[in-house]
Specification:
The complex is a heterodimer. Chain A contains five helices and no strands. By secondary structure, chain A is mostly helical. The two termini of chain B are 26 Å apart. The chains are: A mainly alpha, B mainly alpha. The interface between A and B is large, with 80 and 81 residues.
Chain lengths: 130, 113
């Protein structure tokens, strides 16, 4: 189900707001502390609230599970960027970091699916035995 | 003046990227997979690009170090959110996610300073 314009605006406002907070904190306390806010769960709460309202609690809970994979991807993003920036410069670091985010998130999602499938098969076998 | 321009630019670019990732997430299925895009680095990309253009490599490198700890806080907050979903409504759970992230990030900021 596609989001309505005002719902998109809500998410954009969350993202812009967190970005402003990160920038101001970076100016006051330094780039390292400001950097913490670059991995702030900016749109997650707004997204979950909208999904629950429109598609129910089950769907929102599924999205929440997926966000853990996304967060693992953020660690991959920041770590790859940190490793690449000094030898290769900002452009290579940000492109590499984005690829690391994509691969990290997809990898975490694939592991989640594998584990979930294994548990589901285990429950099925248990049910047959019972 | 440059600081104000930098903050406004970051907000505008972050808003655009967040919307783009959210639209992509809305189109994808299943929702568990789409949830990956709730953790997309939209705010990070917006800030790092502007920071690189206006301040240089050193500030970007420092920001990325802080971001690693922020992302670890995100993982902890998302895990707490999964548990919270079984007991709370989404609005209360959203507050729990933010508070958890804030507490871990605050503790991390003491280490970084």
């Amino acid at each position: 189900m596609a989001a309505k314009p005002h719902e998109m605006a809500t998410r954009a406002a969350f993202g812009a707001g967190v970005s402003v907070v990160a920038a101001i904190i970076g100016v006051i306390f330094g780039a390292r502390v400001g950097g913490l806010f670059l991995a702030c769960p900016a749109i997650l709460p707004a997204t979950l609230t909208l999904i629950e309202k429109k598609e129910g609690k089950q769907r929102a809970e599924e999205d929440e599970h997926g966000s853990i994979a996304g967060a693992l991807g953020l660690v991959a993003f920041a770590a790859a960027g940190s490793v690449l920036i000094h030898p290769h410069g900002v452009v290579v670091a940000l492109v590499g970091a984005s690829l690391a985010w994509l691969l990290g998130s997809m990898g975490a999602y694939a592991v989640h699916l594998f584990l979930h499938g294994t548990r589901a098969r285990g429950r099925l076998h248990g049910a047959h035995r019972g | 003046m440059a600081t104000v321009v930098s903050i406004v630019l970051r907000a505008v670019i972050a808003g655009v990227l967040v919307t783009a990732f959210a639209m992509l997430g809305d189109k994808l299925s299943p929702k568990k997979f789409a949830g990956i895009f709730s953790g997309a680095p939209s705010v990070a990309l917006a800030n790092l690009v502007v920071l690189a253009a206006m301040k240089g490599t050193s500030d970007v490198a420092d920001s990325l170090v802080g971001m690693i700890l922020g992302a670890v806080a995100f993982i902890i907050a998302a895990c707490v959110g999964v548990v919270g979903y079984q007991r709370l409504k989404s609005m209360a759970n959203s507050v729990l996610i933010w508070v958890t992230w804030g507490a871990v990030a605050l503790a991390s900021s003491l280490v970084l300073r």
